[in-house]
Amino acid sequence: MAVNENAELEDLIRNAGGGDVEAEGEDDPGFDIATLLLVARRSLIWIVLLIALGLTASWLFLRYTKPVYKSTSLLKIDEKTEAGALGLAGPLGKGIEEQQTLNKLSGEVELIKSNIIYRRLKDSLDLDVNYYVEGTVLENELYGTSPFKVEYNIKDPGLYNTKFNLIFTGPQRIRLNYLYGGQEQSGEYSLGQPIVIPGMEMRILATPLLNAEAQDKKYHFVINDDGGLNAYLSNNLSVEIVNADANTIQIAFTDFNPAKAQDIVNKIDTVYLQEKLAKKQQATAQTLQFLEQTLAENRTQLQNAEENLQSFVRNNKTYDVKADVAAISEKLAEQEEERLKLTEKARLLGEVTRLVEQDRLVASEEATLEESIPGLATLEDSPLTQQLEELNQLQQNLRRILRSYTPATEAVKQQQSAITYLKNSVRRQLQQNRKLLQDQISRMNQLRAQFNSDLQSLPQKETELARLKRPFELYEKTYLMLMDKIVEFNMAKAGTTADFQILSPASRPGAPISPIRMMVYAIGLAAGIVLGLLLVAVRFFMHNTVTSVRELERATSASVLGVIPNYDKEKMSVSKLVVDKSPKSAISEAIRSIRTNLDFISSSKKKRLISVTSTISGEGKTFVTVNLGGIIALSGQRVVILDLDMRKPKVNLAFSAENVKGVSTILIEKHTVLECVQHTTIPTLDFISAGPTPPNPSELILNAKFDDMLTELYEHYDVILIDTPPVGLVTDGILIMRKADIPLYIVRANYSKKTFLKNINKLMRANNFTRLCAILNDANASGVYGYGYGYGYGYGYGYGQGYYEETKPTGSALSRLRKRFT
Fold first, then answer.
1. Residue 387: pLDDT band by 50, 70, 90 thresholds?
2. Which H helix or E strand runs over 683?
3. Which domain range does residue 422 map to?
4. Secondary structure of 408-462 in the HEC alphabet?
5. Where is coiled-coil annotated (predicted)?
6. Is the CA virtual torsion 576, 578, 579, 580 positive or negative?
7. Contact present, 687 and 640 (Cβ < 8 Å)
8. Starting from the edge strand earliest in sequence, which strands make up the sheet with 773-779, in order?
9. CB under 8 Å to 321, separation ≥6 — which residues?
10. 168 and which of 190, 215, 496, 636 could share a cystine (Cβ 3.0–4.6 Å)?
11. Does residue 575 share a domain with residue 676?
12. Close Cβ partners of 69 (under 8 Å, ≥ 6 residues apart)
């Protein structure tokens, strides 16, 4: 509807001589901070409600959301990498070591998250049955605190993950109900009684926690299958490498029950330790078994090698062929040396024999036997040496005797006889010795031949011995090594420890990780504030009506004559005169202020023509006209109100009078001015109604008779107030405003569009209305300058929004409440 009104107003201005409508941006006042603050102030209650709604939503979320707790432990894995064991250095070795460390840690992570650990965990903790107690809003799991325990034997897998409801009907009586095959099953049993149901056998046993208070609550339990348990553990367990350089791994588990989360993490540490120990012990046992088996086989092979070596030693009477070679070589050298000595002796004996046969052992009488036979001492034969000396002595004596005697003398013969005898004795001795030496030399030659033969056979024996020693030494070395390894692994098995340390064991979490109360409340608060700000932004951008005199002054070049507050003392279907009934009200004071301002504007004139118009119907021009006329009349001036809104007259309705005759009948000379004047409760205030609606209101106003009517009224009245038609709909108002001394333009707060203010400026420029004044009507008391006495008066919503068709706005309870808030 606003678009149509603006279009009609633009057509009106063109027809009135204003030319083309100026660009809308020329009158754009920019960003209106005051309006934004006003909208924010009016939206304050909604912002508070949205913040309260956000906090309430946070409280409800926390109330109906189970808290999730997280328990963690920190492990240090003491793994040795192959790169470190091989002693690799440098960047390449470091990179290989880091990669191997990361791979080993990743393998440990997968081991912790494997079904092996899950299976051991399920065997260590009672996780197969979950017990719950029903609370006011949420159910709570009774981990380790259940007043009863379930023993079961399920034959039908369909009963896994089934909810069994349990209530106590007596100190030792319970009632169970559950769904089986789509039908509800129920029964009452005694504690400890075997319960046989289709597909399952179980017993419900009491625990020490069962007491009278526990019997008043409702419980249910669920028997989990392996798949459900594995999924539960996998979804809630997280294992992460915290620091690859430090070989640390963090194990974390989340659950609604903090004690359960702590127990599971600690038990994971324990079963991981057990698994690592079992794995090590198994590896050690397998190694020991392999070592013992290998040792037995090696023992047999070693015995065979020993027997072969012993046979060789027995047969060859040697164990060290190299030593035998050295010994034989040494013996050969000794034997050769001895043989040479014997040969030398034999030669010497031959020489001695030759000398003996020559009858001359020494060369001269002065020489000794040792000097003539140098090697005599080497014979080492004292008797022979002695005989040779005696023979030499006899021969020397014989030569001395022959110098004195003849050979025929007895002395010579006796001496020769003694020499012959001794020579024969020496000759026999020499022969005997030479024979002995020859025998010795022959034996030595035989021994040398034997030694040479032995030396020739030794390489073959050495090869055979080396062949027999190799397996013996190998089996002996392996046997000793295996014995050492068995002792070593037995010692390792006795002191086997896990290759990890628990740096930080799991502790019971005190505060949940989700939801975090402060964060949830902060989110609720932030959401409320954001929604409130969005509401302010939406209301600001949708705020297209004038709300305060500041907006009116900021957006128009017309002078603001005053502000009229709203009037809520009574509800009026049509505009009425109220200043005479409530002379001390805020609205009366506001109109008096407007009257004073009018006096300042037109102080030089005693007779004044004041036109009152607006953009569209419903902005309160009739109400302002009637009450402004009343206030001026109460000041002692004679005032007449003309209702020129001949298409939709309302002035007569304000005074509860008839509209049989009036301005229209005066202009067509059917009645005179005095005949149409009607009096009011204020003696100095009269009015002339519009009269019957003519077919041509604009032409009547342009008629010279209209000026004659004004001249006649000036003779009887000081102020003529004209209630003109809305200028945004018809041209009549502009024609009258040209004749008026003071044209007044009515803008209704929270009703008139902001675009109307731009139209006011365009109207002033097009028609040169330099004395056009604006009045803000129906403003809140807080928006009135100098007013706002706290009476809360106003005149309601009785104007309607259409010119040709009266509309009656409805006032629902919600709208009244909204009005109170704004």
1. confident
2. none
3. 322-461
4. CCHHHHHHHHHHHHHHHHHHHHHHHHHHHHHHHHHHHHHHHHHHHHHHHHHHHHH
5. 288-346, 384-450
6. positive
7. yes
8. 559-565, 773-779, 742-748, 608-614, 719-723, 639-643, 685-688, 678-679
9. 458, 461, 462, 465
10. 215
11. yes
12. 254, 255, 256, 257, 258, 261, 509, 512, 513
Distance CA 778, CA 619 (A): 9
Question: Which domain-ending residue is among 461, 491, 521?
Answer: 461
Q: What pLDDT score does 755 carry?
A: 82
Is 435 found in the same domain as 557? Answer: no
Query: 261-305: per-residue pLDDT in tens?
Result: 999 999 998 888 888 877 777 777 778 788 888 888 888 888 888
Burial class (CB in 10 A: 0-12, 13-18, 19+), 579: buried
Residue ending a domain, among 411, 437, 461, is: 461
The one-letter code for the residue type at 701 is I
Which tokens sit at 696? 């041509």
Has residue 209 been placed in a domain? Answer: no
Give 85's pLDDT tier (boundaries 50, 70, 90). Answer: very low
State the average pLDDT over residues 528-557: 85
**Does residue 150 fall inside a structural domain?**
no
Structure tokens at 38: 């006003």
Q: Which residues are CB-contacts of 629 (< 8 A; sequence separation ≥ 6)?
A: 639, 640, 641, 685, 687, 719, 721
Reported as a single tens digit per residue, the pLDDT across 144-164 is: 899 999 999 999 988 999 999
CB contact set of 586 (below 8 Å; sequence gap of 6+):
565, 781, 784, 787, 788, 789, 791, 793
Instruction: Give domain status of residue 345, yes or no.
Output: yes
CB-based burial label for 601 (10 Å; 0-12, 13-18, 19+): middle
CATH number of the structural domain spanning residue 767: 3.40.50.300
Tell me, what's the pLDDT at 737? 87
Overall number of domains in the chain: 2
Query: Which carries the bigger pLDDT value, residue 682 or residue 491?
Result: 682
Q: Measured between alpha carbons, how far is 307 from 811 in angstroms, rounded to an integer?
A: 125
11 found inside a domain: no
Residue 822: the pLDDT is 52
Residues 557 and 457 in one domain: no
Residue 96 CA to residue 682 CA, distance in Å, equals 109
Q: How far apart are CA 287 and CA 590, in angstroms?
A: 109
